[in-house]
Design brief:
The complex is a heterodimer. Chain A contains twelve helices and two strands; from the N terminus they run αββααααααααααα. By secondary structure, chain A is mostly helical. Chain A has a two-stranded antiparallel ribbon with strand order 1-2. Chain A is globular and about 70 Å long. Chain B folds into two domains: 57 residues, no CATH class; 203 residues, MetI-like (MetI-like fold). In chain B, 77% of the residues lie in helices and 2% in strands. Chain B contains 14 helices and two strands, in the order αααββααααααααααα. In chain B, strands 1-2 form a two-stranded antiparallel ribbon. Chain B is globular. Classes of the chains: A mainly alpha, B mainly alpha.
């Protein structure tokens, strides 16, 4: 034990600088954003929230609906991709999918915004191809640069991340139960839903919660794809600061997005604690 | 399993190729369609409605981006400078922290690990807004140092977590062997631990580099308009309707990211990956 105390002090000294950066440059500003949300003209009150409610209710609902819908779609697609990688019987198709699905993984959100902005526009490449192939007529071509564009951008960018986590967890599963169910004649879809997904549920939830939080704070995608009303809270925060220097309402909106993320995180924690109990 | 597959009639296997190819083709279109569009815009001279493809191809916009006096060149150098400084500072903080978290007995170790996750677990935007306000008082707003500090905060989770995993995956006996033949703790760290952890540390450094290169929101509030980085240039070019410049910038940001995606498995071996978060 005599050797232990200096060891601990050394350890703390080595960790301290990195820890200090997080506390000073993230935790402190985070706390000041929470405090700032309640600050009105030198005092404290709910004025900023009342103003946010009056001006941005539709945007708040829009944000929560869009991010939830994206999270749901990301979950479905990553289970489908992971499931096919684990249960697919054609090795060549599995190899092709494994090579394909990861491409958007490290592509930054701002690039995703630019890429889809040109691709999904009314006269973008997607509509052009559909017209050339004869699937739609030029009159039927519509721009996808509204809520659909934001959802497509989020799903396009975040699905590979969750699919990577989920397929990794699926690959680590014990194959014997899967083989047993297969021998009893269960279909692959049945095996995926009844046996594989319940066992990787924790990993899936971690990926989805992280994606939800990430999407809640992405500014570039709503700015690039759809900055008209209704838009996402993040675009409103940037607007409040740049146009009015209004930190009160910006912080109130920030706290609302924080609470939305917090609810998702809390839901996840409660779920895992219940499972472990 | 092989007996079942062999006893199936051959034609049923052939028929499965149709939905399989359609599905894979669709996935390929969803992934590469938008990317193709980006590369087309990057080499387009003229392209307008209702033409399905560009009317004229060329590299004149590339010349404009890389011209020495252009604003694009300034953003490129800014971005690379900020990214290198971010990596240097983040690794200087993360290597000691990762070693301590992996090897030394620390009180509240789990809590410390979680603290580094905080910047990923909370929405960043309200934080950047307030950092910008804070930095303004210290004269850090609109400086390279300010942008670097913001990027370091965001990149530290990758740096610390992967560095910890890299150190934890090293066999303790190798270090003990070095100690037993008389090497000092510092020498052991320099000659045994550090070289063995190098691939994992390199992976975390690349992660931090890419995060910094691609970061938009923090640079938007802290850096703009004085410190222009590539993502900011992309945004202003795109907002101004200059799709060629925006697409060329996007391609320049895309290449390192995709390149890393293709080689990540060489740096992040499964023995390191399995230790991440432990």
């Amino acid at each position: 034990m005599t050797n232990d105390t200096p060891n601990r002090i050394l350890g703390l000294l080595l960790v301290l600088p990195a820890l200090a950066v997080i506390v000073l440059l993230f935790v402190v500003p985070l706390a000041s954003s929470v405090v700032g949300a309640f600050r009105v003209n030198g005092g404290f009150g709910f004025g900023n929230f009342i103003k946010s409610y009056e001006l941005y209710t539709s945007d708040i609902i829009f944000t929560v609906v869009i991010v939830s819908l994206s999270t749901l779609l990301i979950g479905i697609f990553s289970i489908a991709i992971g499931g096919y990688l684990v249960l697919g019987e054609n090795p060549r198709a599995v190899a092709i999918l494994r090579w394909l699905y990861r491409w958007p993984l490290f592509i930054p959100f701002i690039v995703v915004g630019q890429v889809l902005r040109t691709f999904l526009a009314k006269n973008g490449l997607m509509n052009n191809i559909l017209i050339e192939v004869g699937l739609i007529t030029p009159l039927q071509a519509t721009s996808f640069l509204d809520w659909r564009g934001i959802v497509i951008a989020f799903v396009w960018k975040q699905t590979p991340f969750v699919a990577l986590l989920v397929s990794g967890a699926m690959a680590a599963l014990d194959r014997s139960t899967i083989e047993a169910a297969r021998n009893l004649g269960a279909s692959r879809l049945r095996i995926l839903i009844d046996i594989v997904v319940p066992q990787v549920a924790t990993t899936l939830m971690v990926g989805l919660v992280l994606s939800f939080v990430t999407m809640m704070s992405v500014l570039s995608v709503p700015l690039m794809i759809n900055a008209q009303s209704p838009t996402m809270i993040t675009a409103d925060i940037a607007f409040r600061i740049n146009a009015y220097g209004d930190y009160g309402v910006a912080n109130a909106l920030g706290l609302i997005s924080l609470v939305a993320s917090g609810c998702v995180g809390w839901f996840y924690l409660r779920q895992t604690l219940r499972e472990r109990a | 399993m092989t007996t079942i597959a062999a006893s199936r009639p051959a034609f049923s296997l052939d028929l499965w190729w149709i939905p399989r190819s359609i599905a894979l083709g669709l996935v390929a279109f969803i992934i590469f369609g938008p990317l193709t569009n980006l590369f087309l815009w990057a080499v387009t001279e003229r392209w307008y409605f209702p033409h399905a493809l560009p009317l004229e191809y060329g590299f004149s916009y590339w010349g404009r981006v890389f011209s020495p006096r252009g604003t694009a060149m300034e953003s490129l150098t800014n971005s690379i400078l900020v990214a290198f400084l971010t990596v240097a500072l983040a690794m200087a903080l993360a290597v000691p922290a990762g070693y301590a978290l992996a090897r030394l007995r620390l009180p509240l170790r789990a809590l410390i690990m979680l603290t580094f996750l905080i910047p990923q677990a909370f929405p960043n935007l309200p934080v950047y807004v307030n950092i910008a306000r804070l930095f303004y008082q210290f004269g850090l707003n609109g400086t390279v140092a300010g942008v670097v500090l913001v990027h370091v905060t965001h990149g530290l989770v990758y740096a610390v977590w992967i560095a910890t995993a890299a150190f934890a995956s090293i066999d303790r006996e190798l270090e003990e062997a070095a100690r037993s033949i008389g090497a000092s703790p510092l020498r052991t760290f320099r000659d045994v631990t550090l070289p063995l952890a190098a691939p994992g540390l390199l992976a975390s450094a690349i992660f931090v580099f890419l995060e910094s290169l691609d970061e938009f929101t923090g640079s938007y509030f802290v850096g703009a308009p004085d410190v222009n980085t590539m993502p900011l240039l992309l945004y202003t070019a795109s907002a101004g309707g200059n799709y060629q410049i925006a697409s060329i910038t996007a391609v320049l940001l895309l290449l390192p990211s995709v390149g890393f995606m293709l080689v990540i498995e060489r740096f992040l071996k499964s023995d390191v990956l399995s230790k991440v978060g432990h």
